[in-house]
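Human: For the file, kindly provide a plain-text protein record giving the amino acid sequence and the backbone structure tokens, at your earliest convenience.
Assistant:
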Amino acid sequence: SADRRGDCRRARTSGAPAADRDRADEPCDLQIDGLHGRLGKSEFAGHLTFGFGGARPRISGTLSAAALDLRPFLPPSPADGRAIGDGSRAEQALPLRDLVAVDAEVDLKVEQWLGLGVDVRDASVAWRSDERGVHVPISATIAGVAFAGGLELDTTAPTPTFAFRLDADNAALGELALGL
């Protein structure tokens, strides 16, 4: 409710009355239903809940998109004329521990991924993260072949570990091999 969100905001200010500061660890959720947005030329819809209060912030929800265009987020292809080693975003180190700054349970369903150089459809990604790392089950149809697998990021060790796996049963490699 609006009153509850007001309590959460007041509880986090230094000048809040003692009674409000005492409630700072209580859950405070911001829920967005009927979410519609754009990411570049891609449109998505769904719902998200942001949680504040407690030991760590959290986000949960479901998003879906008919098509998700990844081209703005991918490094340019050699055909784009940019030289390798030009300091592009793909060459910068990824701060892996930043991926677990928030506890997350977000499901993403995409009918078609664009910009990957191979036909990817009916993708389902379930992002799960907490202080220990990230676990992301993935399923998709890639060049007509059904795949399932996921990625794991363990940030509990001094050097984070990363694993990625995709499995397919009875896969015909014709079109798939051409796309890879």
